[in-house]
Design the sequence.
């Protein structure tokens, strides 16, 4: 114990001899001055924390604007898909007219709602329930319109006509 | 003894030489300046400063591990070392002691340095480290035994 006690004592004495109190004080106050200058600028807006907060705020606002521009919500996606689908549906409708297939006449069902409207609603329900990809939606809508047309024809031809509802299994 | 000299001596215990200890002391005071807001009671400022000293020194040690080739010059030789031979022996013994201290487990080393280099009482160390006084005493005893054993082992190896 004594051996290292003595050694530590000598080390401390030697170190204290080289320790310059004045140097320590002047160096410390210089460093504190430098530090306080960087922390507090006379102009409020140039102070580091203020600038950092400003930059973060700016980035958040820019991010929010970018999100509004580039990221579409699921509803917007659905709206676009339906818009696209309806455009194709009307194209198909025009095609049917062009091929002299009789146009679907609005027909009232038991609840006083048009059958055609019902068939479209049923398609929309199945799309929502089955999570069908966007690319399949136009085809399903077209099929619904064709089916509606055929039902109309069948009704005109009597009860022995084609039952497309059962055959296609969509509705 | 002024406060910063005490801090300097604690830093000396944790570091390799007086130059490192001076840099560490500066660092301690800068940290204290930056974190003055965390000081809850002025009467506890002494322990708060020792705690900063201990943390700064332990961080420093992580970055600068001591090895056998490290410079251990204390910065000023003790007055009684008049011959080159005695100075060489002193340097060699000091190197062994420093290595022994550095090889102590952290919880023993901090107690040993605060006691031997900082001349803190058991009660002051307990207050600084937030540990019971009894535990401090036992750790200090174990640290001394480990250093004696280590230095004895070094001597035997040389023989």
Sequence:
């Amino acid at each position: 114990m004594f051996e290292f006690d003595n050694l530590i004592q000598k080390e401390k004495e030697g170190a204290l001899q080289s320790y310059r109190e004045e140097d320590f004080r002047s160096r410390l106050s210089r460093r504190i001055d430098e530090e306080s200058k960087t922390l507090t600028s006379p102009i409020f807006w140039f102070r580091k924390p203020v600038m950092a907060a400003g930059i973060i705020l700016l980035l958040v606002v820019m991010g929010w604007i970018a999100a509004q521009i580039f990221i579409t919500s699921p509803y917007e996606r659905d709206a676009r898909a339906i818009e696209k689908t309806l455009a194709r549906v009307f194209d198909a409708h025009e095609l049917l007219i062009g091929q002299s297939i009789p146009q679907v006449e609005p027909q009232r069902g038991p609840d006083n709602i048009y059958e055609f409207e019902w068939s479209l609603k049923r398609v929309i329900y199945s799309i929502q329930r089955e999570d069908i990809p966007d690319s399949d939606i136009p085809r399903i809508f077209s099929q619904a319109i064709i089916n509606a047309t055929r039902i109309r024809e069948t009704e005109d031809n009597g009860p022995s006509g084609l039952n497309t509802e059962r055959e296609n299994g969509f509705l | 003894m002024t406060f910063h000299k005490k801090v300097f001596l604690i830093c000396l215990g944790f570091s390799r030489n007086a130059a490192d200890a001076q840099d560490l002391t500066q660092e301690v005071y800068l940290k204290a300046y930056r974190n003055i807001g965390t000081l809850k009671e002025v009467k506890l400022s002494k322990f708060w400063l020792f705690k900063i000293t201990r943390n700064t020194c332990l961080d420093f040690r992580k970055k600068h591990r001591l090895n056998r080739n490290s410079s251990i010059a204390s910065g000023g030789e003790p007055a009684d070392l008049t011959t080159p031979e005695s100075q060489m022996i002193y340097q060699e013994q000091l190197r062994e002691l420093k290595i022994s201290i550095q090889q102590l487990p952290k919880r023993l080393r901090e107690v040993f340095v605060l006691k031997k280099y900082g001349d803190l009482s058991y009660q002051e160390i307990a207050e600084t480290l937030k540990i019971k006084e009894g535990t401090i005493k036992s750790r200090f005893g174990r640290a001394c035994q480990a250093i004696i054993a280590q230095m004895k082992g070094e001597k035997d190896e040389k023989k």
Q: What stands out?
A: Chain A touches chain B through 23 residues (CB under 8 Å). The mean pLDDT of chain A is 72.
